């Protein structure tokens, strides 16, 4: 699933930025029309992002245009149904160690796990804790979160007290001297394979269902 955030989180709503949509052009899986909960890529929640398009002079805050994620193009206005999108974008850091804006709190999807468009099923979209591709995704800049092992890029367990930075693919990594800090690891644990297979995984010390608690400060 495209979830990297675990349910535990502690933050102030004033530290959530609701201004940008995810630039999903590089999501793997065969194109934007098939971004589904089965795709664990930059469209997941818990992904570190930076601003890639923030020019409000050249871009209106809402762009009404035909969007290939949900409909075909028409040569005439007959039957045309424009889909509003947010042209202000965030994406994963252009280089590892860059200063990040924060982490995404929702996954960005176009279809559900059965390939059905979420554009016509807002209840299912909310159940999946998702926004549609092109819609504004909430980005948390500060707080305490718990993340699945998939949100960590490390060859060995991250130790409690380790300062963290952003990797180029939007994961947390142990901070190098020249990197910008995004927070500190304040706890580690293992859920165990018998607790929740959706968050199963094997920590580098062979404990299953690994997770990390991070004090985020971007």
Please provide a written account of the structure.
The protein is mostly beta strands and 218 residues long. The protein has a single domain, classed as Head decoration protein D (Virus Head Decoration Protein, Chain: A), CATH 2.40.300. The chain has one helix and 16 strands. The strands form four sheets. The chain has a six-stranded antiparallel β-sheet with strand order 1-12-16-15-13-14, with no helix packed on it. A six-stranded mixed β-sheet has the order 2-11-8-4-7-3, with no helix packed on it. A two-stranded antiparallel ribbon has the order 5-6. The longest helix is centred in the middle third of the chain and has 6 residues. The radius of gyration is 18 Å and the shape is globular. The two termini are 26 Å apart. The mean pLDDT is 82.
Beta-strand residue fraction:
25-35%
What is the number of independent domains?
Answer: 1
User: What is the assigned CATH homologous superfamily?
Assistant: Head decoration protein D
Between the first and last Cα atoms, what is the distance in angstroms? 26 Å
CATH A-level architecture? Beta Barrel
Measured as a percent range, the helix fraction is under 10%
Question: How many beta-strand runs?
Answer: 16
Molecular shape: globular
Low-confidence stretches: none
Question: Could you report the average pLDDT, rounded to the nearest whole number?
Answer: 82
Topology:
Elements: E1 5-10, E2 16-17, E3 21-22, E4 48-53, E5 63-65, E6 83-85, E7 89-91, E8 102-104, E9 107-109, H1 122-127, E10 130-132, E11 139-140, E12 142-148, E13 163-166, E14 172-174, E15 183-190, E16 210-217
Parallel strand pairs: 3-7, 9-10
Antiparallel strand pairs: 1-12, 2-11, 4-7, 4-8, 5-6, 8-11, 12-16, 13-14, 13-15, 15-16
